Amino acid sequence: MKFRSLAAVGIIPVLFVGLASASSKEAPGQTVDSGSFGIYVNGQRVATEHFTIQQHGTGSTVNSQLREEGSAEKASQSSLMQLTDKGELIRYEWHEVTPEKTDLELLPNDQFLIERVTTKPGEKPFEQPFLLPASTVVLDNNFFVHRELLAWRYLAQNCKTDGGKFQCIAGPISFGVVVPQDRLSMRVTLEPAGREKLQVSGKERELPRFDLKFEDNNWSLWLDDQDHFKIVKIAIASEKTEIVRD
To answer: Which of 203, 208, 210, 243 has its CA 20 to 30 A from that of 218?
Structure first.
């Protein structure tokens, strides 16, 4: 797995947290999820992502930090996403501290999203507009918590509680997303793929799996339906990569 400063291939605001807020009754300003993911390639841990998702009275905030393991020049990155209570983007920031210094921000402006990238202090930022609404999902390949946010959005749109039982309508949903670090937009599809058994903290559990498909790749996501549908594991078979909640 490569951690790129301009990598290729969003949050649980009040709008699509119906799922988490209805089950946990969390008050505004509370942490919805926090923790870390271990990132493994060929079974070896190569990086760790620490994240916090908070829900406020006026929206949601996601902070994430990634640090590479075991190299002479360890990659260090951070990101901040702010959303309104309707799930629309207020601001997205991405900062690379090492091995290079790069700052990126994505802001809505009327019917556009405007991206600004600065590679040197004091330098005039490069700007690129996207003809996309503020409701567009932001995905960063190096911050895997964004996939959890996308999964929650799917669940809020396609699932409901009926007679005390949580049920989803089978079938894929397509989302428009923007990938700021690659300066591109695309469409991705998320769909349920049944339930599977896997080891979680040394115990075998049966969890729902979802498939995230984009262009020529396919990611598998396992969610914990006993803990607010938090992501437990992500597998990227084509890259021999696994992301596992610590």
So the answer is: 203
